[in-house]
Amino acid sequence: MEVVLIFVPLLIISFFQSSSSSILPKSPYLGIHPEDEKYYFESQLIQCKDGSKSFTRDRLNDGFCDCIDGTDEPGTPACPRSKFYCKNVGSTPLTLFSSRINDRFCDCCDGSDEYDGSIDCPNTCFKNGNVGRKNHDYMSSRMHMSSFDLQGRENTTNLEDLIQKLKDLKIVFILEVVLVSMVAFYLFRQDVSLVTSDQRDGLGPLTYEGRGLARFLFSSFCSIL
């Protein structure tokens, strides 16, 4: 029973967090924000930004989530918390949550977020103009962008961050409910076996305390749910 108590939560965690991509980006540096390039290229050993652990550069964008904060997977959907950077050269750069990578929807105008081939995303960043003209127009539009537009983009990013945090809290809550429920069930089973044994020995009243504990745990979590 103790083995089951340990194994089941691990199975649930792997169910929620195992989202490794079977198709990896052609470049291991895809999705990295330009401001973070030095962080990734300075050493062969890279530390997760949250300081939890380190990983070697060959594990960058390998489709397996090593860092809880997604530092090692900026270009794949393997880590729920990682963010993908669209360069969108000639247009407006964009930062996406990893859940929008290979989701069959063209979020980046350069099509870099849909590299698995399931959908064709042509590069529309330079549409109706050459590179030089587009770069000039891009800089001009950035200078004249209204504060309302900037606030709207910031609000959208903050909302997505909040949604992701709520999802993480939901996973933690579910795991806590499962663990405590299993412990309560285990205690209840133990109590039942003691009742049977005590009844044979004429000591039935001694097991009331164990039954009370199991019932208290069950009733507490039922009231929370």
What is the secondary structure topology, with strand pairs?
Layout: H1 2-17, H2 37-41, E1 45-47, E2 54-56, E3 83-86, E4 94-97, H3 131-143, H4 147-201, H5 208-224
Count of discrete alpha- or pi-helical segments spanning 4 or more residues: 5
Distance between the termini: 25 Å
Physical arrangement of strands within the biggest beta sheet = 1-2
Radius of gyration, in Å, reads 26 Å
Low confidence ranges: 3-21, 128-134
Q: Provide the helix percentage.
A: 40-55%
What does this structure look like?
The protein has 225 residues and is mainly α. It contains five helices and four strands. The strands form two sheets. It has a two-stranded antiparallel ribbon. β3 and β4 (94-97) form a beta hairpin. α1 packs antiparallel against α4. The chain is elongated, with a radius of gyration of 26 Å. The model is unreliable at 3-21 and 128-134 (pLDDT under 50).
